Amino acid sequence: MTTDPTPEPVSTSTSIQALERWRLVLGEPGESVLNGQGLSGEGAARDAALGWLYGRDEGLRKRGIRGGFGKQGGNGPSVLNTVDWLNDIAKLFPKETIERLQRDAVEKYEIHDVVTNPAVLETITPNQTLLKAVLRTKHLMNPEVLRLARRIVEAVVRDLMEKLKADIRNSFSGSRSRRPSRFKQARNFDVKRTIRDNLGHYQPAERRVLIETPYFFSRTRRHLDRWQVILLVDQSGSMTDSVIHSAVTAACLWGLPGIKTHLVAFDTDVVDLTSEVDDPVDLLMKVQLGGGTNITRAVQYGSGLIENPRRSIFVLISDFYEGGDASHLVRLVGNLVDQGTKVFCLAALDADANPDYDAHTAQRFANVGAAVGAMTPGELAAFVAEHVNR
């Protein structure tokens, strides 16, 4: 008979850290979990930073999860301002937590000076959360603040383009044919054919093949038929991530051989941004987020851009909540499919591809033959390239 080994005891320091995390989650009302030990110095600083943000949440206060706004670990009112708070969280929390705190500050509690205060904009580290905040609040900024905010847009867009550009260019560049060539260059040495055609000169004693005739191939790019890629992106407030990634995707597609790219933004109005696709930073700084949605009007406009239906890829990026005539919209999408256009209805085009959308309208699109889903930009590039490179 055997018995289970005695489990290793949990160290006191580990136990205290776990209790302190619970205390930080619960705020001042959770003081009892520490059994009177109190927070460590770093724990108190973290609690002050969390209290500055989440202490203003009436819902949490009523449920007794966090104390009132502006408390520092129960030791009195905070004197933090937004700049102090941003500096503190940069030192106290890991990157993922910092971005979550910044997102909640801007989106949940509408602390606009995170992206409209010049002192903050001069020092803050750009990320996608801040980029979205800039796009939503740029109408509040004076020219000097707007200039500083542009730094965030440029940095994040540059990073997104670097990540996406290689995948898109590889997907759309077309394969290279391997044709025999008279030009003998080492990088074009055709190893397989050379060995195969010289096997008659194999020397058993020396166990090697004597190469009498080497072969080389040429690297000529396969011809691509001209295709149109038409991106229609909903610029209502819920689609901010998709607007950003659509601009970056269109910029990466721009100028590729055999591809003619269009980018159209819409709410209740339709704006053709194709002429500005090569500068996604400037394009994003001009986008007006929010407002209603008339997808039908946008699809009608996009349909008019099609030159050759069987060489066109029509990508509608929206949450599908139609403010116009939904039945008319579905008929328009069905007509595009019937004429031979490749139609993709995407509820999101962003890094997460986890959308909130009108499932009923999405199903109606699928019923008339459109491909419906959500994608990352890289997935869209690969999916479209599969058709273009056939």
UniProtKB/TrEMBL annotation:
Gene3D superfamilies xrefs: von Willebrand factor, type A domain (3.40.50.410)
Highest taxon, organism lineage: Bacteria
Entry-linked InterPro entries: LolB, Uncharacterised_CoxE, VWF_A, vWFA_dom_sf
VWFA domain location: 226-385
Any Pfam family matching the protein: VWA_CoxE
Protein name, per record: VWFA domain-containing protein
Species of the source: Catenuloplanes nepalensis
Taxonomic path: Bacteria, Bacillati, Actinomycetota, Actinomycetes, Micromonosporales
